[in-house]
Amino acid sequence: MPAFIDLTGYKFGSLTALKRVPAPIGVRDHTRWLCRCACGQEQCFRAHTLRGGNVTRCRKCTVAARTTHGASYEPRYRMLMQAKARAKKNGLPFNIKLCDIAIPEVCPLLGIPLAFGNTRLSPNNPSLDRIIPALGYVKGNIWVISWRANTIKNNASIEELARIVRNLKRAIIGAASRPAASSEQLQLVLGKHEERRKQHNWRLDRRRDGKRVNTYLHPERINAP
Ligand SMILES: [Zn+2]
Fold first, then answer.
1. CA of 55 to the centre of ligand 1 (A)
2. CA of 59 relative to ligand 1 center, distance in Å
């Protein structure tokens, strides 16, 4: 049996050994030492890890030393990193920081609530947008809007959007004044459109998973033989 080494009062980095703590009765284990960290936290460590230089801090301080900003899992951080990548790829100016990104409760363009859904392309997903696209991701030129609003806006200028609204209005009024299609014809067209949309979403879901999931069935095929 190795000789007992008294570590009381010894310092191991930020840790100071206070007293020996015996292993619980019936458990064969190494000697543990109760240590006090520089932060005030008290924690037990095995003697050989202390003497080997493997630990120099309490667990809390170890995690704190390893953490750079603690925001890696925040959605805003992901937005920031993706924006940075886009800026680099497209040669756009970029000088925003995490604190510049604020996610409001509702989309400032559409007024719909902003929330992260299960699917990446959910219309309510918050998405970072450049107010004037050409200026890039710079302070004062970014805001968070819904994915829906962002896809509609895309990189359109206000003049282009106004022109679309004007011409679309004119087209709708023109179509309404023409003799209406029979309701059967209308149903047929709408039904085809809906079917295509469902199939499109279904394909998106499958692609997002990266592999085919056997349990997932197209809504129309659930009752199929
Ligand atoms: Zn500590």
1. 11
2. 7
Of 38, 39, 2, 43, give the one whose Cα is nearest residue 21. 43
What three-state secondary structure class fits 113?
strand
pTM (2 d.p.): 0.55
144 phi and psi angles, rounded to 5 deg: -105, 120
Give per-residue pLDDT as tens, 148-203.
999 999 888 889 999 999 999 888 888 777 766 667 777 777 777 778 777 766 66
Question: Considering only CA atoms, which of 34, 39, 38 is closest in space to residue 13?
Answer: 38
CA 35/CA 53 separation, integer angstroms: 14
Using the mean position of ligand 1's atoms as its centre, give its distance from the Cα of residue 30 in Å. 22
Interval between CA 34 and ligand 1 midpoint (Å) = 13
Of 128, 165, 118, 132, the C-alpha closest to 150 is 128
